[in-house]
Amino acid sequence: MYKILFVCHGNICRSPMAESVMKYLLENSVLLERVHVASAAAHTDEIGSQPHRGTRAVLAEKGIPLVPHRARLMTAADGAEYDLLIGMDSYNVRDMKRIARGNEGKVFRLLDFTDHPRDIADPWYTGDFEETFSDIMAGCTALLERLKRDLV
């Protein structure tokens, strides 16, 4: 089983959105039974919280089921357990490399898999969950294509 962990600051906006989108994309993929997806936080701010109402609303609007979720903290053990550790922005990546010391080569930003690598803005601050969704969909779609090439 190939394992992917999506990480953002608090694990209530971007990373559970990415986890939900990726699971949705995997449903109709040859990789459905071969890829496990989860999400976590780089910081303790929201541990135990449900996904943000903006994340829930945009996923519902797009017809994508929200995964059952409570925010949890990324651990050093995750660095060893997961094959890919995917952050949403450069700050997440910095924090993830500190947490996953020794497994830094597994850490990427989600949009690094696209033709336009960049950070995904945090909708907690921008309020723009639509833009965040668009970036996450682009990143997850590109990641899925990469996985199909590498794992099939």
Question: Please, could you describe this protein's structure?
Answer:
It is a single chain. With 152 residues, this protein is an alpha/beta fold. The protein has one domain: Rossmann fold. The protein is 44% helix and 14% strand. The chain has a four-stranded parallel β-sheet with strand order 2-1-3-4. Helix 1 (14-27) links the parallel strand 1 and strand 2 (35-41). The two termini are 13 Å apart. The model has no long low-confidence stretch (mean pLDDT 97).
Number of domains: 1
* Number of distinct beta strands: 4
Please estimate the helix content.
Answer: 40-55%
CATH fold-level topology: Rossmann fold
CATH architecture call: 3-Layer(aba) Sandwich
Spatial shape: globular
Largest β-sheet summary:
4 strands, parallel
Q: Which ranges are low-confidence, i.e. pLDDT below 50, for 5 or more consecutive residues?
A: none
Distance between the termini: 13 Å
CATH class descriptor name: Alpha Beta
Radius of gyration of CA atoms, rounded to a whole number: 14 Å
What is the arithmetic mean of pLDDT?
A: 97
Q: Looking across the biggest beta sheet, what order are the strands in?
A: 2-1-3-4
> What's the order of the H and E elements?
EHEHHEHEHH
- Number of discrete helical segments: 6
* Class from secondary-structure proportions: alpha/beta
Q: What is the structure about, briefly put?
A:
The protein has 152 residues and is of the alpha/beta class. It is 44% helix and 14% strand.
